[in-house]
Amino acid sequence: PPRIVIAGAGHAGGSAAAFLRQYGWKGGIALVGEEAHPPYQRPPLSKAWLKGEASAESLALRPARFYAQQRIDLHLGIRVTGIDRAARQVQLSDGRALGYHRLILALGARPRSLALPGAGLAGVLALRGTADADALQAALGPGRRLAVIGGGYIGLEVAASARALGAEAVVLEREARVLARVAGTALSRFLEAQHRAQGVEVLTGVEVEAIEGEAGSVRAVRLRDGRRIACDTVLVGVGAVPNTELAEAAGLDCAGGIVVDLAARTSDPAIHAIGDCTQRPLPLYGRSGRLESVPNAIEQAKQAAADLCGRPPPQPEVPWFWSDQFELRLQMAGLAFDAHEAVIRGDAEAGGFTVFHLDPEQRVLAVEAVNAPADFMAGRLLVAKQARVAPELLRDPARSLRDLAA
Ligand code: FAD
């Protein structure tokens, strides 16, 4: 019987295997993953898991028995080392080859590394998998001092978790504000203030020049302006690089990610690609981009599984993302490309607020909510509908957003 091979057993790959069965695929499914674990969720690794508040079972994407029940063959601890498109087979790190009728690449991304003096010292860490999270957790506690290079979501979440574990934390950001790449100014400023109130030192507009050590272990981070930030652990959180090497070597179109369409098809009709490793269309915004989120991994897993089972592609979704820091629940939807105006509803002092990003025609492009789940849900609908709404209406607490979105 024909077999689908899924290369990469992370959130996207694991979800694709499940959707294939749900949509009626009767042939074989082989899920090949480099990590030793069946597919698991990464979001808790910087949040609940790091703080010791989540069990190993709660990380798993599906219970262990699911794979046998669904006839999904797991090949774990095994790397795909090559793709032979002509022979339709993948080479594995254990020397075997696995033939495929269709191949799904779900290879994810890896932390970007910094080519800095001292980057190889003990105590300089990155965070992608459970082993990374365990090493980080062991380094955090009372009397410890963490320096986070990069004020992105992962860096901020780890700084917040470090405080919860009793460690000191300092965030070093090169841009003028944290989250400069992914959030609006209001949200950045709010989070900087929250982190400072919780005892995190936040330095923006600073460039790291070197990491300094003693006897092979990190002792400080040196900034270009000459300042020396003492620490015993460094987390490098400066973004992720898509794992495109296998696809490039096989001659698939790649451009900052493996290029796919809305059915997750690559430039080879026998190969799909999904998740963090892809460059995908963003139909709401008339361009393409690479999304690094669980909702995107699931959406593209559905696209690939639907296509492979002869179903029509699912309706495109609004990109969305969440983050937890301290007692804050952040939810973001849409992308603020070409945003013209930011409208704030609610009151940060009172606990919850939402930022709407509008284009010059007052179309809602994106929404960012802090402890405001109902406004987030309504805002996401406004983004999906590309609704045009006057700022006064969005700002007016007496107006129901649900009615505006209806
Ligand atoms: P991955 O989950 O990375 O899976 C790819 C898998 O492929 C990996 O297991 C990798 O080892 C394997 N692999 C790579 N190359 C090969 C090969 N050659 N052969 C075999 N296997 C291979 N998203 C959110 O939406 N909300 C959050 O709050 C959030 N928090 C996050 C916190 C952390 C600390 C991290 C690291 C990520 C977070 N994300 C969050 C992002 C989210 O986890 C990713 O977008 C998601 O995991 C992407 O799924 P994926 O399957 O594409 O990649």
UniProtKB/TrEMBL annotation:
- Name of the protein: Ferredoxin reductase
Please provide the record's keywords in A-Z order. Answer: FAD, Flavoprotein, Oxidoreductase
Higher taxonomy: Bacteria, Pseudomonadati, Pseudomonadota, Alphaproteobacteria, Acetobacterales
User: Is-annotated flag, keyword Oxidoreductase?
Assistant: yes
Boundaries of every FAD/NAD(P)-binding domain copy: 3-301
The molecular function terms in GO held by this entry are: oxidoreductase activity, acting on NAD(P)H
The record's GO CC annotations read: cytoplasm
Per the record, the domain of life is Bacteria
What InterPro entries does UniProt report for this protein, alphabetically? FAD-oxidoreductase/Apoptosis, FAD/NAD-bd_sf, FAD/NAD-binding_dom, FAD/NAD-linked_Rdtase_dimer_sf, Reductase_C
Q: Which PANTHER family match?
A: APOPTOSIS-INDUCING FACTOR 1 (PTHR43557), RIESKE DOMAIN-CONTAINING PROTEIN-RELATED (PTHR43557:SF2)
- Location of the Reductase C-terminal domain: 320-405
Q: Which cofactor does it need?
A: FAD
The family database entries (SUPFAM superfamilies) matched by this protein are listed as: FAD/NAD(P)-binding domain, FAD/NAD-linked reductases, dimerisation (C-terminal) domain
**Which organism does this sequence originate in?**
Roseicella frigidaeris
